[in-house]
Amino acid sequence: MIFYFSASGNSLWLAQQLATATNEELVNMADTLMQNNCSFVLHRNENIGFVFPVYAWDLPPIVRQFIRQMELQNLSDNYIFFACTCGDDSGRMLQRFRRELKSKNLRLDSAFAIRMPNTYVCLPGFDVDSPILTKQKLQAAPLRIYQIAQSIIHHEKDIFQTLPGDFPRLKTHVLGRFFRSFLLTDKPFHSTPDCTGCGICVQMCPLHNIILQESHPQWNGHCTSCLSCYHHCPTHAIAFGHRTKNKGQYLLKNVLPQSKLNH
After folding, report:
1. Which helix (H) or strand (E) holds 200?
2. What CATH code is carried by the domain that includes residue 232?
3. Which of 66, 173, 198, 251 has its CB surrounded by the most CB atoms within 10 Å?
4. What is the C-alpha to C-alpha distance for residues 205 and 51, in angstroms, rounded to an integer?
5. Element (H or E) spanning 254, and its range?
């Protein structure tokens, strides 16, 4: 069983590839949380995987919430792993994830990170990658995914390849804390005059946090800062204050050939 969370498509694609390679079932963390149904019955020796993006060198809040609420029945000798997507590095993700599992009396067997195109655009100096860098990352991804899948298939233990990068403590514990304290909010979100009231942002919000009022989106205070609304808007009409002005959009389906998305 592979639990996943994704907004722009990077982590969903990774989860799909790993599920195909390992013959595991995919479970959307956001959906199960919204349905208040986080209890799962495991098969004997079934893999338990988690796939998600890195947020500010830390776990996305929705992933932390899911782990704390999940109940796993019939635990035996299950192989447990996570695979995260990041733009450049993941900081102390390994340590943070282990702490969450420890609270559930679970042991992590392996962990992996894979570089994928950047999606965070809400701070100065942060933007989507250039087309050239996006192409380079996507060209390198299939081999990396194959290597991760092989480690999982062979139940290789104590393999921790998480790309901590430079100054991981500073990034996770200082910058990550700043993100959680001041940027984990939907108050600056608004629509611009280019908004057509199509409602795609409403459909794509994993927490059903957006509604349309007078044909314009309204955010309701339960945001996980995944930027799914921003990146999915077909007219680029969603803004985060003035911080996203002249910033780019990114969706995996818009840059990766459909044949690769399905294989």
Report:
1. helix 200-204
2. 3.30.70.20
3. 66
4. 18
5. helix 252-255
